[in-house]
What does this fold into?
Amino acid sequence: RSSDLQWALIQYQTKLYLLNTTKLSQELFYQIFIYDFGNFGILRLSEPAPVYDLVMLAFENPNSGWTEEDGPKEGLAEYIVQFLKSKSELMKDYFSLEVDEAGNLTGLPLVIDNYVPPLEGLPLFILRLATEVNWEA
It folds into this structure.
């Protein structure tokens, strides 16, 4: 069961501790991002990933929140490509997240050496990067 995978036992001296690995991982990555802000390595993608295609994949996910009232997916995806291209310098400088002039995702932040994040969440991440980040702050 997936709920069993979020728990782990660790021993320290004579005590045994039950850890929620999901919450521990979230806190670990948060602390790393705060500590290394603006100083990440780059995880190069072996093939550039078109942002347009990633966003279109994300729209197929019910968690995207897209409804027909939002407008055609294709138009929104193209807007997101242009928007993220306009933010590419900032994303590269501070987060080592690279989007090239053609609208392809070419690099992700290398947060932990030799760790490649599960890429199945990448489409929804890119969509949320464009729609749920307050870029004005």
